[in-house]
Each structure stands twice: as C-alpha cells, then as structure tokens.
Amino acid sequence: MSKTLILYFSKTGTTKRVAEAVASRLNADIYSIEEEDTYSHQDLDWTLASSRANKEQKDSKCRPAYKGKLPDLSGYHTVIIGHPIWWGIPPRILYTVLEDLDLSHKKVAAFATSGGSTYSVSQDEIKNIIGPQDIEGRVLSGQNAVDKWLTESGLL
Fold first, then answer.
1. pLDDT digit of tens for each residue in the chain (156 aa)?
2. 107: number of CA atoms within 13 Å, CB side?
3. Model-level pTM?
4. What does the alpha-carbon distance between residue 145 and residue 56 come to, in Å, rounded to a whole number?
5. Pairing state of beta strands 78-84 and 107-113?
6. Which of 27, 97, 145, 147 makes the best surface tag, with the fewest CB within 10 Å?
7. Distance CA 64, CA 31 (A)
8. What backbone phi and psi angles, to 5 degrees, belong to 89?
9. Looking at the record's lineage, which domain of life comes first (predicted)?
10. Which residues pair with 110 in a beta bridge?
C-alpha cells in the first residue's frame, strides 16, 4: 500500500485530471469523493441564484452527504486533498468529508483547481476544519505546476 493517498472531489473532470497527475507522480493511491445526491448541470450553474451549489456555498452550515464509505487512513502517512474552488472556498461536500476523517497524525497537503481564485481562503477553510497543522496548498493547472508544487512542498 502506498503511504500517500489523494482524496479528491471533481465535477467537471479538471480536478480529477490534476489528482491523477499528482497520484501518478507520487505513486499514490487515489480516492474519488462522490456526492450522494448527484449534481445536475443546473445544480452547478453559478449564474442561477437558486442553483443547489449557490445555496450550499452560501450556507456555512451546509454539509452535503457523500456516497459510500471513506477510505481507511491508518496505512497512510500523507493525505493530499484535491478540490475545485467554488465561490472562493472548497465545495461544502469537502467540509462533510474532512469533518468525518481523523487527520490529526497525518501530513496533510491540498490543491485546488480554479479559473481565477487563489488558494489562501480555501487553505484557511481547510485549516479551520482539520485543526492547527501546517497545510501546503496551491492552485494547480497543469503538469509543470504539479511538479513544481510537489518539489517545493517536499512531497516529491
């Protein structure tokens, strides 16, 4: 078993592609977080004020359910979390997942995909959920960015 696990959430495939690149580079295991109630195209349409994603992201207490059982982390030293940035922060389903995991004795890193956001607010949100540990996070957009982040963060 690999000592690194990539946990990621992706709806358009962008975060999935980056997660796969990170996993390949690190020879890490990978786990896709799936929502219990599948998002439709309309649910994800940020231009509709009434879209499900808009409502979820605006509600700080919202915790959408995930499908299945999360992986056992006992065999992993490092957990890398991948997600898109929605409305400046991780999707609310990530909060559900992180609140259900014990990451207290793990090295945690995180990456996001985004069309324009930086990672600082998302990183703060993740730190608020998992506690006061160092988290190396960055927005990634391609293999060069992946390689640079993995090297600079000491993950490679």
1. 569 999 999 999 999 999 999 999 999 999 999 999 999 999 999 899 999 999 999 999 999 999 999 999 999 999 999 999 999 999 999 999 999 999 988 999 999 998 888 888 888 899 888 887 778 789 998 889 999 999 999 898
2. 10
3. 0.93
4. 30
5. parallel
6. 27
7. 18
8. -140, 170
9. Bacteria
10. 81, 137
Query: 3-class SS at 48?
Result: coil
Domain ranges of the chain: 4-152
Return the number of other C-beta atoms located less than 10 Å from residue 55's C-beta: 13
- Evaluate whether 86 touches 39 at the Cβ level (below 8 Å): no
Q: How far, in Å, CA of 16 to CA of 13, rounded?
A: 5
Q: Which CATH superfamily is domain 4-152 in?
A: Flavodoxin domain (3.40.50.360)
- Phi/psi of residue 122, each to 5°? -60, -40
Residue 29 burial (10 A CB sphere; 0-12, 13-18, 19+): middle
Expressed in percent and rounded to 5, the helix, strand and coil fractions of the chain are 30, 20, 45
Q: Which of 38, 83, 21, 87 is nearest to 59 (CA)?
A: 87
- Residue appearing with tokens 């990183």: 123
What tokens were used for 99?
């609140």
